[in-house]
Amino acid sequence: MEFKPTKLAGCIVVVPKVFADPRGWFFESYRADRYAAGGIDATFVQDNHSRSVKGTLRGLHAQWRKPQGKLVRCTAGEIWDVAVDVRKGSPTYGEWVGVTLSAENKQQLYVPPGFVHGFVVVSEHAELEYKCTDVYDPGGELTVIWNDPQIGIPWPEQEPLLSDKDAKGKTLAELADLLPR
C-alpha cells in the first residue's frame, strides 16, 4: 500500500496493493494501523454509499459544527474527486487538489477536516463509499458553490446535474464566518 501526499497538507491519495490472479482480485480497503502509519490517523464513525449518473456534481460540502474527515473510494465507474482547503489562515487556503478515483484504479482520497469535498461523475454512473470521522449534522453543513471563481476548479463537466442545495451554494467569501481556522 502506498500513501501519496498531495500539495495540500493532510490530503493523501491511497494506492492499494492489489493481489490479482485468474480468479479475480483482492486488496485491503482499510486497515487502521497501516493507514495511521501512512498519515491517516483517524477514527471513522460513519460509512456512506452513494450512486450517481454521468454529469452529476455533488459538492462542495463540509460540516462546520462537526467537521468531518472523509476517506473516499469509487466502487463502480469513475469520478473526478476534489478537495479544497478552506481553513482560514492556512498557507494553502482556497487551493484544491483533484484526483481520478475509479473502480479500476481502486485508489482512495483522504480529505481531512477543514476541507470542502466534491466530485463529478465522468462515467455512465458511479458509486462511492466513504468513511467519515464524525456523524452527519444537517444543521452544521455548508455548501461552497461548485464554480466559485475564487477557487477556479476546471471541472470536466461545465453543465453538471446539481441538487437544489448544491445549485444554491455560496462562495468562500460569503461563507467566511463559518469557515474553520
Protein model, in words:
This protein is 6% helix and 40% strand. The longest helix is centred in the N-terminal third of the chain and has 6 residues, at 32-37. The strands form 3 sheets. A 6-stranded antiparallel beta sheet has the order 1-2-10-7-12-5, with no helix packed on it. A 5-stranded antiparallel beta sheet has the order 9-8-11-6-13, with no helix packed on it. It is mostly beta strands. It has one domain (45-178): Jelly Rolls (Sandwich), CATH 2.60.120.10. It contains 2 helices and 13 strands. The model has no long low-confidence stretch (mean pLDDT 97).
Low-confidence stretches: none
Number of domains: 1
State the helical fraction.
under 10%
CATH architecture tag: Sandwich
- Predict the CATH topology: Jelly Rolls
Order of helices and strands: EEEEHEEEEEEEEEH
- CATH class equals Mainly Beta
Individual helix count: 2
Gap between N and C termini: 32 Å
Mean pLDDT: 97
CATH level-4 homologous superfamily: Jelly Rolls
- Overall 3D form: globular
Overall number of strands = 13
Strand order within the widest beta sheet:
1-2-10-7-12-5
Radius of gyration: 16 Å
Q: How many strands, what sense, and barrel or not for the largest sheet?
A: 6 strands, antiparallel
Q: Strand-residue fraction?
A: 35-45%
Secondary-structure class = mainly beta
